[in-house]
Specification:
By secondary structure, the chain is an alpha+beta fold. 47% of the residues lie in helices and 16% in strands. It has 19 helices and 23 strands. It has a five-stranded mixed sheet, covered by helices on one side. It has a five-stranded mixed sheet with strand order 18-17-23-20-21, with helices on one face. β17 and β18 form a beta hairpin. The longest helix has 91 residues. The chain is flat. The relative contact order is 0.09.
Amino acid sequence: MPDSPDDDVKPGPVSKPEGADRRSYSLLELAGVMRRRRSFVRGTVGGLLLLCLIYCLIVPNQYEATARVALRMQAASSLNLDASEAFSPASILSTPLQLETLVNELRARQLAWRIITGLRLYESDAFVRNFEGRFPGFDAGNPGAEAQNYLLDRFAKRLHVRALPRTLLIEVGFQSKDAALSAKVANELIRSFMAQESEGRTSATMQASAWLDGQLKTLTAQVAIKEKQLAAFEREHGFVSTQQASAAGAPIETLHDPAVQQIDEAGRLLAMAGGDRILREALYTQAQQGNPEQVLAANPELQAEMGPGGAALAQQLRTHMSEIAVELAQLRAERGPNYPRVVELQRAQADLESQLKAEDANLIEAFGRTWKAAVDREALLRQQLDARMAEGLRQNDAAIQYSVLHEEVVAGRELSNRLRQRIEEARLAAGVHPSSITVVDPALAPFKPVSPDMPLYLAITLFAALWIALGGALLLEQIRPGLKTLAVCLLLLAAVQGRGQAPTPSTSGLPTGVVKLPADVPAHPQVNPKEAPPIWNGANPADAAAVPDTAARPAGALGAAMALPIAAGDFLDVSEFRTPEFHATVRVAADGTVMLPLVGQVSLLGLSEQDASGAINKALVEHGMLLHPQAAVLVLSAAGQDVSVLGEVARPGVYPYTVHHRLLDVISAASGLGPNAGRLVSVFHREDPHTAHPIVLDPSGTDSKADHNPELAPGDTVLVSRAGLVYVVGDVVRPGGFAVDPVQGLTVVQALSLAWGATPNASAAKAILIRDQQGGRTLTTLNLHRMIRGQDPDLVVHDRDILFVPDSTAKALMNKTLEAAIQSAVGVSIYAGLVYSQRF
């Protein structure tokens, strides 16, 4: 039957309308097709099940034995003889690398060949068939390269080693036709790996120990010679050495020579006394010529000898006087002589000068006393050093030689002891060092084969056969006998390939493959903003159709930014560049005056910010407070100078009328337009609040004839209109409501493109446009196929219109059936091929 009412069937040579050969099926018709094609269905299902059953019967059973080992993170026993043993750290960076390395070591060809020759797998039919016939005269001790590679490849295919995710476990599995052989090979592989690790470690330890034994003998002979030389030197010079325990517990030999120690102590005391005498003489001289309190402040250790107070009081007085002098110089450069702070600082400066002179005289006298005491102490220590020097010179040379010999003996003993202890520990630990892995679960002989799994294979085959049979039956109903059969099948497969998935959105906003707009000019031209329809949210149509207003504005509104005069009730921020205490935030009184610090009342009524700053500067100079004032005035808030922004904006509210006061400026201050905003804006002036002046926004900025961004006046109200909504529902890719600007308008094809077009299962030829009018709801049937191709006019949609696109049951069932059948057949083929390749 035809897809739309416009397609009439007429006799004669007239061509058939589009979609006349299409046919849809209901559930009853599908059941009838299955009954008519029951022979084909039975043959397809039965044949596939029979092939699957034969495959399961002829394929030999495969058994897989699995063992698990763990990467060792700590010592296997509490008796650990190897102190330098490094265990595997539990780190997210190192552990995966260690597990991967261990897995590759278990797959090594050398270890695999050890298992093959140890268990003589080449003689087992469960591992390899007719090996003697293929490689006659095989010798495991001297195998040929071809035979060895063949056995290693067979072993690698049957061996499965993998690390378990998020654990330190490794699973080792081996497949074979013999269950006992699978378990035996898996366990032998783990045992051989552990034995191979132990053999390599023991061999390396023994080789290193043999070399170290020779070095130890040579070192011991050298230490014995040095000890004899040291003993002879002690007897010759009469030295006495004793052993004392160190902090670590080891004994240390110490040489006792009292004469040398006494000379060192006397020399150290004399040097300190000489330095102290020179320092105190220099301080006394510097105090006489300069500032004594600064000298004492630089040497705080002398303040206790100078008596109570010392230089602290004098230093504080001088610091305070310097601060006063700096502050007084700054104030005299900017402030007048009557400034209160200037008078106060002059009096404090005179008092500090008199106190400072008395403190300096006391400090100079104290410095002289400390210098004379240092001179007497130095002379006494020098006499003591001369008496001890003669006695200590005799023992100095002998002590130096003894120290050199003693250090050589001690170093040789320590090195030989450490080397001997290390050799003994390495020999003991070589035989008991544990392996890097521990066996968690040994492999057991499996009782159930891993393949073939007959129930699973039959279930998969039955499911795929039913879909293939259903698809084949539908194909047999559609195709015609003859040479066209192959062409029709290829077209159906191409349709399933192209329409089996949802359309992909393109960069232009339209789904790829859903709609294709004609290249010619659209039937509906662009709407003129001056002829826009009335506002959809309830505004007066007569006001909306009016011409944008260019009524009177305040002076200067069309030029540069307006500077509003200061009026009563305004908040002002008053500050001076170099006087922080002058800063104040004040409100203008009813008489236009403000109360400011230092100057009192100042009249600012009717002045601009710049003129108000000049008036305050003049008042500061007249009162003798500042010589060169730089006052600044900022209007924080102006009383009654604001603009209201309402409607479809992000943040409606009242905003101050500042430097930026055009229409787009106040909309930007309200955080921009809302998601449902239209292009029509109404402006209500304070002098005429009941008359709306419509303004059409120009987002593109290309219309230079009309004023789309007029100036506003204080007290104006801006109302942003709401855009309409058109709903697209039914079998479309993205159903929902879409905004429609009342000025620009929207058509049916444009609304369908906003919903990403119709789905492959939609009946686009039977779409319905639902519209609410005064007389009731009207329904209009649309053929979207013809409308997209430009064969039918593209209708304009209005606010609250509903575009409904129905779905087609026949298309959905046919697409799902063919897609499922092809996917099932491909999946079964891939799975069967994988299973067969793993078993043979």
